[in-house]
Amino acid sequence: MVQISEVKGNTRENRTAAHTHIKGLGLRSDGYAETTGAGFVGQIAAREACGVVVDLIKSKKMSGRAVLLAGGPGTGKTALALAVSHELGTKVPFCPIVGSEIYSTEVKKTEALMENFRRAIGLRVRETKEVYEGEVTELTPEEAENPLGGYGKTISHLLIGLKSYRGTKKLRLDPSIYEAIQKERVTVGDVIYIEANTGACKRVGRSDAYATEFDLEAEEYVPIPKGDVHKKKEIVQDVTLHDLDIANARPQGGQDIMSMMGQLMKPKKTEITDKLRQEINKVVNRYIDQNIAELVPGVLFIDEVHMLDIECFTYLNRALESTISPIVILASNRGRCTIRGTEDIIAAHGIPPDLLARILIIPTVAYTADEVKTIVRVRAKTEGLAITEPALEKISEHGVKVSLRYALQLLTPASILARVGGKKEIDVDEVGECEDLFIDARRSARIVDEGDNFIS
Ligand SMILES: Nc1ncnc2c1ncn2[C@@H]1O[C@H](COP(=O)(O)OP(=O)(O)OP(=O)(O)O)[C@@H](O)[C@H]1O
Ligand SMILES: [Mg+2]
């Protein structure tokens, strides 16, 4: 017999990534930061500054501007940006990329940048649509002789019965809708809605009148829709401009066999031309004027921004000035360095001065011993590790002497050593052992400098 285990949603509760403990900026309602809040420790000024940025974004006063998080390695720049995205919620698009991501052989750099710009601009479309909504009580395709004289029969139309709280209705639908219904695998007892003017059909779930029937529990049960079967319904959709680009760039599927094949095979990457984007911008602007849609400028976060080159920076300059533009958050851990793509132009953070001049800069500072200790403690808790106070002290020392990252990285191996040794908590011994097993960057560099070139 086949075992069917319950399929859970793909919540990733068991995985802890580098920033799992960061749940937000941890600000009070008056905008000031608690010393520790939402997993964030210290870095008070930068957090408060980010809080202001979040407020500006939410009140839509910030589009077309850029913020730079500047500070040494491991001072929480990436963590801050992620916290900003938490604070903004899911309705505001947040598109994180790393500077080096745009160098691909497939697309131009500026094209890749543009694509990400458009991923970061949302559009909330509000439409009142005429829909038929209800539980399916009947589903009968009616056949007819093939008008072209072939052998098979064709579906001439589809009879469908829909039941809602207030009444029932029987509809006679076009065969094209039958395809949509088949695609959604609609059966009697499902709750569906059909858009009157486009014929698009969506299966909402299984009617809860059937909730007791035998099934695999993979179903979502929904109540029978209120009101009449035929009604007007406001549908709010959140899309990004990039979604619109993609949807319109892909060749629209017809009903011939080639487009069927095309759908089965891997979708080919179709180019989004500038012309298409302009067309879409035009339509979007019209929607905005007509109050059908609302622009939601989101955030484009470019980590390690010094990896961009001079062409990209010039492009960024221009893109920020366009009327439809997101908020751009940059992060860099470089001080003065050459701008990529130039021979010898040295600039702060590797960003050309003309761009830098229009950016708000938020500095991040190194952590004190106490702060490091609290961060290590928060991390240990997130990873579910028990650690004794002296061991915590010892790991934190590394946070100050070497780097916060090194300290945090020692935690997991130390916990494994503790488990192997049959201990419930990480103790000083394990930390000491880990220090010898895994050396930090500085010690490693020293070994190399002492003339050990590994191959000789
Ligand atoms: N104030 C903080 N509170 C809690 N955790 C922090 C804090 N600052 C940094 N961390 C954690 O320390 C680690 C390193 O921080 P992060 O990756 O944000 O550094 P960064 O400034 O982006 O460094 P880099 O310049 O090398 O990219 C991460 O796991 C991060 O979650
Ligand atoms: Mg980073």
Automatic annotation (TrEMBL):
SUPFAM superfamilies: P-loop containing nucleoside triphosphate hydrolases. GO terms for molecular function: ATP binding; DNA helicase activity; hydrolase activity. Its EC number is 3.6.4.12. Keywords: Activator, ATP-binding, Chromatin regulator, DNA damage, DNA repair, Helicase, Hydrolase, Nucleotide-binding, Nucleus, Transcription, Transcription regulation. GO terms for biological process: chromatin organization; DNA repair. It comes from the Eukaryota. Belongs to the RuvB family. DNA helicase participates in several chromatin remodeling complexes, including the SWR1 and the INO80 complexes. This is RuvB-like helicase. It comes from Heterodermia speciosa. The lineage of its organism: Eukaryota, Fungi, Dikarya, Ascomycota, Pezizomycotina.
